[in-house]
Each structure stands twice: as C-alpha cells, then as structure tokens.
Design brief:
Order of helices and strands: EEHHEEEHEHEEH
Helix content: 25-40%
Shape: globular
Distance between the termini: 28 Å
Radius of gyration: 18 Å
Strand content: 25-35%
Number of strands: 8
Largest sheet: 8 strands, mixed
Structural class: alpha+beta
Strand order of the largest sheet: 1-2-3-4-5-6-8-7
Number of helices: 5
Length: 230
C-alpha cells in the first residue's frame, strides 16, 4: 500500500538476480558456452569474422584480418558485461556468438544482444535452440523478471527474429545512439517472467524431434510462441 489513494505497482520479490557465469547450456542440437578466444577464435573467424555484412548494425567490426578478430574476441571474453557466449553445434564447432548484457541484478533486468550468427547458423534449428537455452537460463537459473532485446530499428531481420522468438515490441527510442558515425533509432522488445511458461512450452514443442521430418525441416512453425499479453 502507498498510504494514499495514489495508484502504485504490485509488490514484488526484491531479491537481486544473479549475473551470468561460465555455464555450459546443453541442448539436443548443440550448446551455448562461455566464449574462449583460444578455443573458439579460429572457428568463429571462419563462421562470422569473414562476413562483413554480419557487422553492419553492430558496435564493432567488420574485421580485415583474423588476428584482429581473434584479438577483439579475447578482449570481449574478459568482460563481465557484456558476458559473451559461443554457440556450438553438435560436433563442437563454434558458429556464432551472443551476449547477456546491460545487466541490472537489483532490478532483475537483463538483455540479450551482440548476436552474430554465421550463415550456417542462420535460420537453423540450433539458433532457435540457443535462444531457448539462454532464456531458460535467464528466467529459471538467474532469476530475472525482464529479458530485453534491443536492435537498430532499421535491422528488419533482427526485429523479425525477436518477434518470432516471443519478444514483444514496446517502441522505438529515436536518436538513441551514434554508431559508426551514423544515427541509430533503437527498437525495444522484451519478454517477461510471466510470459516464460507459455514461451517455454512453445519452444519445447517446436524443438521436439517429432516436429522435424527426415531432412530436418520443421513441420509446424514457431507460431505457437505468440504473445500471451494480447
């Protein structure tokens, strides 16, 4: 109660969430693990470093030489925020990176970002599984109540991916940043802890072996991962 007739939000658990750590999140198709430039660098150069178009909307890159790229990875691997992970396939090949970032444990808010998926991972079931593993980790192990996705408002593929995965569009922050000398409007999307049970069920139905034919093609789309707040 506020002690007056003024409206206030509901009481919540104020226990801080935990920051991300060096876990291995294993799935049926692959795994997500803490980035290690020594172990992952060469594979990631082939998967993402050599593809300039992957870096258009990101803060860093593209990179001209593998040594520059691996050096940049090594610096990023030491940071606690953003906390960067590598996405590996079933054979242990690193195909992309993703970060948990802008972490505010006291508010129980965290963001997924710095997502760079190589061509072999784009539109692959493993990419969806990686996001499922991270979301499950964020909500169920770390204890966050709000999971954010932010991207350049002009980055249509990123916005489509976020919506497909169950993040809800909340608006655009205009003139939000200057990135690589260009003005950036930022699209904000989010998933809440109250959304997660329905999201988890949809992810798990989609990822089930029975949802894929003998050639690995999906039978049903991830459309079941809709917005329970509508």
């Amino acid at each position: 109660m506020s002690g007056s007739d003024q409206p206030v939000g509901p009481d919540v658990d104020t226990t801080p969430a935990r920051p991300p750590g060096p876990v291995v999140l294993a799935g049926r198709l692959g795994r997500v693990e803490k980035l290690d430039a020594g172990r992952h660098g060469a594979a990631l150069w082939e998967a993402i470093g050599r593809h300039p178009r992957l870096w258009t909307y990101l803060f860093d890159g593209p990179f001209a030489e593998p040594d520059d790229f691996v050096g940049w990875l090594a610096e990023r691997a030491e940071l606690q925020d953003p906390y960067r992970f590598a996405v590996l396939d079933g054979g242990g090949n690193a195909l992309g990176t993703v970060s948990l970032m802008s972490t505010r444990p006291e508010m129980r808010v965290i963001e997924v970002g710095n997502i760079v998926l190589g061509p072999a991972l784009q539109r692959a079931a493993l990419a969806t599984e990686a996001h499922y593993l991270l979301a499950r980790y964020v909500f169920e192990q770390l204890g966050y109540r709000r999971y954010e996705w932010k991207c350049d408002a002009l980055n249509a593929p990123s916005r489509r991916a976020a919506a497909r995965l169950g993040f809800v569009f909340e608006g655009v922050f205009h003139n939000h940043m200057i990135i690589k000398g260009r003005s950036r409007d930022t699209a904000w999307l989010a998933m809440l802890d109250s959304d997660w049970p329905a999201r988890r069920a949809a992810f798990e139905r989609w990822l089930d072996r029975a949802n894929f034919d003998g050639d690995g093609r999906q039978k049903a789309r991830l459309g079941a991962c809709g917005d329970p707040r509508r």
